[in-house]
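Q: My labmate handed me this sequence with no annotations at all. I'd like to see what the chain might look like in three dimensions before we decide whether it's worth expressing. Could you predict it?
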Amino acid sequence: MARSICLGVSSLIEEVEANKMSDRNESRDLDLGQYQAYLLLLARACMPRWLRVKITAADLVQETLLKAEKGKSQFRGSPEQVKAWLRSILGNTIVDQVRKYRGAMRDARREQSIHQAIDESSVRIEAWLEAKQSTPSKRLMRQERFSQLAQALRELPEDQREALELHYFRGLKVKQVAEQMGRTRASVAGLVRRGLADLRANMDDSTLDMNG
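A: Here is what I predict for the chain of 212 residues:
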C-alpha cells in the first residue's frame, strides 16, 4: 500500500514538473511580433492627438513589445489572453508618455479611460475584420487581416486615416470627430466616405463590416 502511494505521488510530481516545463517552452515560443499590426491599429486610434507630435504610434508599439518580451516568461494564457495582456501594457505605455510630456500627476480616471478606449477599439476593429465568407479556406488568418488593414490605412492620406480611426475604431460620431480634427461636419463626412472607399479598394475587400 505504502509503495503504491509513493508511486502515485511520484507520478503526480512528474506530471507537475512536465506541465511547468511545457509552460516555460510555450512562453519562450510566444511570438509577440505577430501582434505588432494589431497593437499599431490600437495605438493610432487611442493615443491622444497632441501626443502624435511627440512620439509615433510605432514607437509606442515598439516600447510595448519590449516590455512584453521582458515579462513573457512569466505569462501564461490563450491568444485572446495574450492580446488582453498586450493591450494593458500598451495602455500603461500611453499613460506613461502622457505623464512624461504633460508633467501631470497620476490620474486614475484618465488612465482608466485610456485602457477602456483601447479595449473598446479592439472590439470594433475585430468586428470590422469579421470575415463574411462561409468557408475557412476563403478567410485570411486573423493576424494577417490586422496586417492588411494596417497597411491599407497607411496608404490613405493622413486626414482620411484619422477620420476613419476616430469614427470607426473609437466609435465617435461625425460631429465629435469634426470637433477633434477642427473641421466641419460636412468635411469629416466626406473624409470618412472617401476614406472608406479607398480603404476597401486598398484591401481589395468589399466584405468589411463598416456599419456604425
